[in-house]
Write a structure and sequence with these properties.
homodimer; 152 residues; alpha+beta; Arc Repressor Mutant, subunit A; Dna Ligase, domain 1; three-stranded antiparallel sheet; 7 helices; 6 strands; DNA-binding
DNA sequence: ATGTATGCAAACCATTTGCAATGAC
DNA sequence: GTCATTGCAAATGGTTTGCATACAT
């Protein structure tokens, strides 16, 4: 299975990061990463905390926040802020290949593959700025909301 | 002056929107739009409220929030959430022509012209989704932070 | 005259912080 | 043994809400 291989890669990246930065490799941190890897789309702190609880793994919210910061700094996840009040996260390797279509009406976020655009963005000349990753948001109205608007 | 013409256009767009939606054309709403038009870059509710106060125009924070919502809905401004806790806004016609280079280290946001990319993004096939505007964020490290990192 | 918009203050809630206890090194 | 990390609870602060008053229509 390819996903298993990918996960080993991700876990290793996390371990290398923790070792290099002299941070501790705690059970909590790896449990949280494991849990995130099971989520295919976006998630927020609340959802993550709940899932961990369901798996019978209790962690404090403070620890979840702390770990999300570490994972973001490590480059494994990235943060989005859509219409919702809570910050949303996503595994970076999943996010790289799509744009986010955000409906201004209902807040739904759809993903759109845009393979070639990625390379064009990477090719931008940014002077002294060293790009690490990017996110493209397109705001507008989704099909459902358009229909709903016509009805009225 | 071209800017004056642009502002008339924007003010008219706002008026049309308010009339169409049967919302009231209050002094506060126009004063807030005036103030925003003077700001060339990003701003948050706090900065805006402060500037209005400096101009001797007192409005409650609730009204600023309300007006920002109306202006966003009207399509005149768009919202960003960078590293800071407060939501940042920007005049939409200014934002359309540049990408945002966000430094993950210090949080600074630089703007980068990217004229041709805009058209490519507009050309994306999004199915039933009707795009209205977009925002491109590139995360990475700015020149200053890179230097600072080397020194240590 | 009617009902929306405003101002103010209180409430809300995601996130951060302080501190004692735990556990990775 | 040392000190980063955790858990818990309290604090923080941006944003939202409720309600009485003002005012656009």
């Amino acid at each position: 299975m390819d996903s298993k291989k990918k996960y080993t890669e991700i876990r290793d990246q996390f371990t290398n990061y923790l070792v290099e930065k002299k941070l501790r490799r705690t059970e909590e941190r790896y449990a949280i990463l494991d849990c995130i890897f099971q989520i295919t789309g976006h998630f927020d702190m609340c959802m993550l905390h709940q899932r961990l609880e369901e798996l019978g793994f209790h962690v404090s919210r403070a620890t979840v926040y702390n770990t999300l910061d570490v994972l973001e700094d490590c480059g494994l996840i990235l943060r989005h802020q859509f219409m919702t009040q809570a910050v949303q996260y996503e595994l970076r390797f999943l996010a790289e290949t799509h744009a986010h279509l955000v409906c201004s009406k209902c807040g739904t976020v759809r993903e759109l593959k845009e393979g070639e655009l990625k390379d064009r963005i990477r090719a931008l000349k940014m002077g002294r700025f060293s790009p690490e990753y990017h996110a493209l948001y397109v705001y507008g109205m989704c099909g459902k909301c358009k229909k709903r608007n016509l009805r009225k």
